[in-house]
UniProtKB/TrEMBL annotation:
Protein name: D-alanyl-D-alanine dipeptidase
Pfam families: Peptidase_M15
Gene of this entry: ddpX
InterPro entries noted in UniProt: A_A_dipeptidase, Zn_M74/Hedgehog-like
Keyword Disulfide bond: no
Residues marked Transition state stabilizer (site): 98
Family of the protein in this entry: Belongs to the peptidase M15D family.
Species of the source: Candidatus Scalindua rubra
Single Gene Ontology MF annotation: metallopeptidase activity
Reaction(s) this enzyme catalyzes, per UniProt: D-alanyl-D-alanine + H2O = 2 D-alanine
PANTHER family: D-ALANYL-D-ALANINE DIPEPTIDASE
Active site positions, chain numbering: 222
Cofactor(s) of this protein: Zn(2+)
Amino acid sequence: MRFLKRQSDLSNYAFLPIFPLKNPEGWREIDIHECGESLVPLSAVSPDQIVVDSWYYKEGYSNAMKECCVRETVAQQLCKASEMLPMGWKIVIFDAWRSLELQQQIFEKYKAKLKRKYPEFSKHKLNQEVQKYVSLPSSNSSSPSPHVSGGAVDLSLRDDSGKNLDMGTEFDTFYDESYTRYYESKLEQDGKLSRREQKWLENRRILFHALTCVGFTNFPEEWWHFDYGNQFWARIKGKEAIYGITSFNENRAICKRSLAHRKES
């Protein structure tokens, strides 16, 4: 896919379909050659183009941070994507790097929700269903959860009026409608969409193409989830992963310096 050079180009992507996506199944088998990049706080990267709106922090998760951090190259690629958006639009970050403790908390909370909904599920079946949407917390250096690597980011778009674009579902709602291509498939099957569904389809296309044209991959079951450098990304791209498990404690000084620089400037 060619690299977009003008902001006006991206609006044309509302009319370019999202073709069938690869699933990262088997991602744990991918080798990781850790590149050693640090985590950087996104609020300090490009506040005019990227907005941090830490969802789990706002929802009261005790292990969540107000800041969202990603690896250095991930931050750079997000900036490139934001530069191609229509004038005044921004990327909104809901979640990025997670501690193992937060990954565990998210996993257990969704597991409890499913258990209430499907009390007949066996323990094995329940864990299988949870892992369709939330990765099993893992401190295994050869197969860390995607968000623990600092290479996964959950996001959306905000228009020039300050309103988040409507994508047809809210962030972190695990329904069939949350699949990235849900409205593409519906259009293919039915031959038409309602006016609202057509808008949701176009908004997803703009988000998808803005991120994938700068190298990100999308997790097909979540329109908001994109990866760069981790095992999900490597599996889909046919490459080696460059991001393994990383800790905020190891990067705390760097994050503090970046935030301090933002305040001074």
